[in-house]
Specification:
The chain has 331 residues and is an all-alpha fold. It has 2 domains: 15-37 and 133-322, no CATH class; 67-118, no CATH class. It is built from 14 helices and 2 strands. The chain has helices spanning 20-41, 54-64, 70-75, 95-100, 104-110, 117-130, 134-159, 172-175, 177-203, 211-216, 221-255, 259-272, 278-299, 302-322; strands at residues 84-85, 91-92. Strands 1-2 form a two-stranded antiparallel sheet. Strand 1 (84-85) and strand 2 (91-92) form a beta hairpin. Helix 1 (20-41) packs antiparallel against helix 7 and helix 11 (221-255) packs across helix 13. The longest helix has 35 residues, at 221-255.
Length: 331
């Protein structure tokens, strides 16, 4: 126990034994890269902004078009046969005939088959996202997460940060079976709370964006094995190592900083790193991050939060995507 009565984290008795300042600085760099990449990757999942190009041009042309003014109306009153005279007395085809000869995009909109330009833009964005296979997305996740985790592990080795600073000791609640059991109970509990919260938000008309999870869902049995055995452990391991072990554990150990203050900072960063899940997803993820941070502080165990994090993700994939069950009753 340390100076914080509710914390199992330790403070280095010889802070000069490792280069704490360099490691914390490198942690800040990795965290910044992590959040920057997460921000850039949102465009591959979300369609909050209409894509540029042809659709944007069509929308602009439609917005520029305005009803004829009073003077124009006087000059273009239709004849009895449906034609419209021009200023010289000649007749012109009416609007219906012009619409029939319009571009296919406009014709589809007239017969109601394609909806609004916004809906069409959304559909095309989803089609573009669908062009990336689940396997390609999983490979990308493994590579990027592995890169961040590897860089920080290399930094920990170079700066000689002890393992106990990351919540890894020989104590049973740190790396033994009790830690696994506590992590499992926490993970299942967080999953249930998350499901109930999503169902409650859905009943109030607040949508929880689950497109990223759907995009990552494999199409084959082998893909599911890779997801559960390789991808999800890497995601849970790297994110817990960065946001909990490094930001909270190592910083507390090296500088004696309040771990609860660091838990707030870590949770905010963790929430921003999941912006692809929408505004509600950011709030939910921030709350989840704070609970995991609290568990890390109280137990002083990396294994506890790793197991809990893994189970939350694994249960969501297994229940919703693999089994197709929506037990909480959300639509």
């Amino acid at each position: 126990m340390t100076q914080w009565a509710t914390s199992a984290l330790r403070v280095a008795t010889d802070p000069a034994g490792a280069d704490w300042a360099l490691f914390v600085g490198l942690t800040g760099v990795v965290l910044t890269l992590f959040l920057t990449l997460a921000r850039l990757s949102q465009s591959a999942v979300r369609d909050d902004v209409d894509p540029p190009g042809r659709l944007a041009t069509v929308s602009t042309e439609e917005s520029d078009a305005s009803p004829a003014g009073p003077d124009d109306a006087d000059e273009t009153m239709p004849n009895a046969d449906g034609t419209t005279p021009d200023t010289n007395g000649a007749t012109a085809v009416d609007d219906v005939e012009l619409a029939d000869s319009a571009a296919p995009f406009d014709a589809e909109r007239l017969d109601g088959s394609s909806g609004t330009a916004r809906e069409t833009a959304t559909a095309e964005a989803d089609d573009e996202a669908g062009d990336l296979s689940a396997g390609a997305l999983l490979i990308n996740v493994v590579f990027t997460q592995g890169l961040f985790g590897g860089l920080l592990l290399l930094a920990a080795w170079y700066t000689e940060i002890p393992a106990w600073a990351f919540g890894l000791t020989a104590e049973p609640l740190s790396t033994g079976l009790p830690a696994v059991l506590v992590g499992a109970a926490l993970g299942v509990g967080l999953y249930v709370v998350n499901e109930l919260g999503a169902a409650g938000a859905d009943s109030m008309g607040v949508e929880y964006d689950e497109r990223l999870r759907s995009m990552l869902a494999p199409d084959t049995a082998a893909g599911w094995v890779v997801l559960f055995v390789l991808v999800l452990p890497i995601i849970a391991g790297v994110e817990e190592f960065v946001f909990r072990a490094a930001v909270i554990g190592a910083t507390t150990a090296g500088f004696g900083t309040s771990p609860w203050a660091l838990a707030v900072v870590s949770s905010l960063a963790f929430a921003l790193g999941h912006g692809a899940q929408g505004k509600l997803g950011i709030v939910v993820t921030g709350g989840l991050g704070f609970v995991l941070a609290s568990a890390f502080i109280v137990t002083g165990s990396f294994l506890v939060v790793f197991v809990a994090h893994y189970l939350v993700n694994a249960l969501e994939f297994a229940v919703h995507e693999l089994l197709g069950i929506d037990w909480a009753g959300s639509n």
